[in-house]
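FORM 7B: Structural annotation worksheet

SECTION A. Query
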Amino acid sequence: MGYQLELRHFSYFLAVAEELHFRKAAERLYISQPGLSRQIKQMEEIIGTALFIRTKRKVELTAAGQYLKREVAYLFNHIDFTVKQTSLIAKGYEGEIRIGFLGSAMQTVVPDLLIRMNQEFPNIHASLDEMSNYHQVEAIEKDKLDIGFVRLARVPEGLKMQTVLTDNFSLVLPENHLLHNSNFKSIDQVSEEDFILFSSDYSNVYYDMIMSICEDKGFTPKVSHKSVHAQTIFKLVESGLGVAIVPTSLQHGFDLRVKFLEIPNIPQKTTLSVIWKEDNRNPALQQVRKFW
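SECTION B. Predicted structure
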């Protein structure tokens, strides 16, 4: 009697593909390890190819298994989203828009978007998730997010990007620092101080731009600390552990003893962009896209 692939096969496969360990996958699924092994073997027989390379020391995906993992993860994400959308529609909503963002986007861009959405599409539910550039791109590719707010020079094929904010840079200093608006002329006035910068994990492009601001003035900054969170950077500056360079718009929304001096006479600008997947079928996205 021939077997057919069922949804459980794909659930079992994905657990093993993510764990790369049959015992751990079985524990995660609350089934026996021999039973899981039989289900995977059955799946491979139905498809007609090996999905895993099994040795006594490790489990690895074959090329076919790697492809299937990507596709099954995408399908399960889409199923989960579709079920959630269905539930929201049943409750009177028109759907959900899933938004990823960098912390700096929460200063003005994301709140403005939410206000406009609430005014024009009050029945579209918005969910928010703060994450890095890389994780936003990955989540959008996997249909876990609909839009993201990032600082990137380019995005992978299949994704669209549009600039929504262009910003200047400001120097962040402790409140009692000798420099102030009237005597601050150039960034090289702090060339001997320690710098606290956004990590390159936040954005490689952004990090390189900060470095170039300093290098254009003849020095390489001594970087003492890095972080992906503005609050952490400002707290370190407040504590006298260094100075920082950030987008000027980040000066709002923090109650700390620091001051912001916009850096004069530099060509560098920082851009915040919205990204989305070109073939995203979420109808809520099509509505919201009118805002950029």
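SECTION C. Observations
The chain has nine helices and twelve strands. The radius of gyration is 25 Å.

SECTION D. Sign-off
Analyst initials: ____
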